[in-house]
Amino acid sequence: MTDDKLAVKRTLAGNKKAFESIIEKHQRLVSHIVFRMIQNPADREDICQDVFLKVYENLGGFQFESKLSTWIAKIAYNTCLNYLEKKRVPLFDDLSTEHGTLETVSDCSIRPDQIVEGREVSSLLQNEIEKMPVHYQTILTLYHLEQMSYREIEETMQLPEGTVKSYLFRARRLLKNRLMAKFKREDLCH
Amino acid sequence: MSLKHLTDDEIQDYLDGNLSRQDALLIERHLEICPLCQEALTQYQGLYVGLKNDSGFDLSKNFAKSVIKRLPAEGETESHFNYLNIFLTILGIIVTLGVTLSYVDLRPLGKAFAHVLPGQEFGSSLLVFAESLLTNLNGNAGFLIIVLLTLLLIAALDRFIIQPKYRRITF
After folding, report:
1. For residue A25, with 0-12 CB atoms within 10 Å meaning exposed, 13-18 middle and 19 or more buried, which class applies?
2. Are A98 and A179 in contact (CB under 8 A)?
3. Is-contact A125 B50, C-beta < 8 A?
4. Among A10, A47, B10, B103, who pairs with B6 as Cys (CB 3.0-4.6 Å)?
5. Domain covering A102-189, topology
6. Which residues contact residue B51 at a Cβ distance below 8 angstroms, ignoring those fewer than 6 apart?
7. What 3-state class would DSSP assign to A121?
8. What is the separation of C-alpha B122 from the centre of its chain, rounded to a whole number of angstroms?
């Protein structure tokens, strides 16, 4: 029996220490999703707590048809969506269509691999990510930070796999172009 | 592929490992001879590194314990839900039985069941009962509608007020 199965079984038998271990194992995943989707820092920890309360309440219905982490991510995602709907935050803003060609960035002397090492650029990247619609941010987080597959992201966000891939590619292309454009402008200023 | 520049999608597919070995080799051959696409590849590689360095936010040190403290006590949620559910079930049964006993003549049904044992015609007895039931209902239809609405009200209370309150399953 895997660690997850054992922890779930023990939790269902009333062992709260086992549930604590589930929380500790998955709190990073939940915090990443909540961080990306919820802009108000004051609400984030409460929402993370709500996610794990829902996990606890519904654990009996979890049949291991997916990974426990994917199931928890789905609950985190839906909890955030409910919060955003209550706050009437638009979820489906479209990205401005920036189809940057290679030529537009090819002459840039600063490359992301050089600049991401600096705190300033890392913070710029975060700012650019935060400007994106929630779905794009979430997909970037699940793919790059949590190393989820397209299939797992599809399951978590209930979006078709093709849409997941399309959003991911579009988001990265836009981020790259925005970063390059920003640094080119700053070069010109100096 | 070697003549045209790589598209953004092709570069991302390459970095994500989505391509077959053969397609990946074609990309690599093109990259060897095209500085422009090498540059684009490096830009994407840098972006991937940046995306992995997302810091997020730190939960409090006692986060797990705080959640554990908020968990309902053993059986707490269940017991509330069960008491109310049992109450509503009993209420529904009483209303249904009360109306049935007051307004419907059950004797034909009794006869129908009595015929089962000696193996007589159960089907025809049921028809007699159905006819009798329709006769008894004649003139009481308005009352029955009120009863039906009462039962629907009980079901709606259960579905929309009690269940959401005691079962916080919302995903």
Report:
1. middle
2. no
3. yes
4. B10
5. Arc Repressor Mutant, subunit A (1.10.10)
6. A125, A140, A144, A145, A172, A175
7. helix
8. 42
The answer to whether domain A3-86 has CATH 2.40.40.20 is no
Q: What is the pTM of this model?
A: 0.66
- CA–centroid distance for A79 within its chain: 13
End-to-end distance of chain B based on CA atoms, in angstroms? 46
Interface test with A, best of B7, B51, B74, B169 (most A CBs within 10 A): B51
Using alpha carbons, select from B75, B73, B67 the residue that is nearest to residue A52.
B67
Domain edges within chain A: 3-86, 102-189
Residues near B92 by beta carbon (within 8 Å), at least 6 away in sequence: B151, B154
Query: Any CB–CB contact under 8 A between B57 and chain A?
Result: yes
Which residues, 6+ apart, have CB-to-CB distance to A96 below 8 Å? A174
> In angstroms, what separates the C-alpha of A122 from chain B's closest C-alpha?
7
A103-157 pLDDT, tens per residue? 344 444 455 555 555 666 778 888 899 889 999 999 999 999 999 999 999 999 9
Residue tagged 């930070």 (tokens): A145
